[in-house]
Each structure stands twice: as structure tokens, then as C-alpha cells.
Design goal:
mainly alpha
Length: 118
């Protein structure tokens, strides 16, 4: 996605400069600045470490959001690779927010608790 390192899962979801920009937008808007994406950290280790920094009332929503963002970053990678279509981080955030609202409507109520911070 960024042509700066091999496309491992950890790099695509956390290490890529594009992905870090997307995470920064999300975490800033959710007022979760204590949660920092480290470029060379494994996704599972980052998630376990980060969820401890999130208030308990928001953790289930945060867990869902991590999976949603990961899924949509993977789809962005595929769009760039196979369709040669790239989004800007701000546009991808908007698409992710739309998808998150759809997940909330589908019954992921804890995600709604987290999204209420936007």
C-alpha cells in the first residue's frame, strides 16, 4: 500500500504510513490519544496493549472498531493492488464511519457507545 516495506498483515494494518494516518484520524476524533500506533508492532500485541488504555465502558466498542478498521484497510489494500484505485486517508475515514454506523444499526450497540464520542 505504501511501497515502503513487505506487505505483511502487521505492516498493512499498523506499520504502513497510510494506515497510521487513518488510525491517527480515528483515535484523535475518538479522544483516545493515549492509544498510539507503533509502526513495527504486531497487531495482536498492539490491540492487547491498547485496549488497556481505553476506558472499560468503551472497550467492547473499541474491539469491534479494531476489526472494522482492519477489514477496511485490507479492502483498501486490495482496491489499490487489483483495481488501481486509492483513497485519501480522510476519505477512507468517512467510508469507515459510514460502515461503522451500519454495523451499529445491525446490532453492534457497543460500537455506538464508542461512536458517540465523535
Amino acid at each position: 500500500m505504501c511501497d515502503q516495506a513487505p506487505e505483511t498483515l502487521d505492516h498493512i494494518l499498523l506499520g504502513c504510513s497510510f494506515s497510521r494516518q487513518v488510525w491517527f484520524i480515528w483515535l484523535s476524533k475518538l479522544q483516545l490519544q493515549d492509544v498510539v500506533v507503533v509502526a513495527e508492532e504486531r497487531v495482536l500485541h498492539w490491540w492487547i496493549r491498547s485496549r488497556k488504555l481505553v476506558p472499560k465502558t468503551l472497550r467492547r466498542g473499541f474491539d469491534t472498531l479494531v476489526f472494522l478498521i482492519g477489514w477496511l484497510l485490507w479492502k483498501e489494500r486490495n482496491a489499490r493492488t487489483f483495481d488501481r484505485v486509492a483513497s485519501l486517508p480522510t476519505k477512507l475515514f468517512e467510508a469507515m464511519l459510514f460502515e461503522a454506523r451500519a454495523w451499529e444499526s445491525a446490532g453492534y450497540s457497543q460500537l455506538g457507545v464508542l461512536l458517540a464520542r465523535l
